[in-house]
Write a structure and sequence with these properties.
The chain has about 240 residues and is mainly alpha-helical. It is built from 8 helices and 5 strands.
Amino acid sequence: MTQFLTQDSLIPPYMAFPRFLLDKEGLSETAKILYTILLDRARLSQKNDGWTDEQGHVFILFPIKNLAEVMHKSEMSIKTALTALEKETLIVRKRQGAGFPNSIYVRVPPETLAQTDRNLSVRQTENYPTDRKKTVSATDRKLSSSNKEKNNMKRANSESKDNRTAYGSYQNVFLTAEELSALQSEVPYYQEYIEKLSRYMASSGKQYANHAATIRSWALQDHPAPARRTYECKEDESL
């Protein structure tokens, strides 16, 4: 049952619908709502470490299956909407590899920033470079040489401290490229363990200090190493 709002009522959680989408007549309603959801997720990425690339661009991970569940749409509808948003240059998708969701970069028309609360970084409005081309951000162009050096050092320290990528349906399993490569060679069905860990942490709220070590531990429990046979005997025993 619904109720009237009063001065003391708590407003339910909401997503801000970008005004400029009202003028995008070529986009379907599904595509517009999908963009709103992606933009909302991008805001979360802004507030958390580890969700920017080497150029400082914010990205998100949102598997198509999960988007379909959130929007109560078919996966085909989500794929069609993502393609439409990409044609409008409102998002850029970058492949991560087989079995893993694409990185999604949400973009905003520069002229709309003056109409918003500016929660989005200016860097989000810049062109994301292709694999064969790099661009210099407006922020870096404005920095003096000394400030640029400090900014590069700060970025390098941040990347060395935590250069992990999020995996799993809930994007909560963090692994470095080296850890992922090691798991691929050491753990059979490593992707299933990544999904298992992702679902368990999301449902239980439990956290682990080292996700790669946890996956190895679980795999060893499921597939213990065979016991080593010994042919030694005591002095009064015979083989």
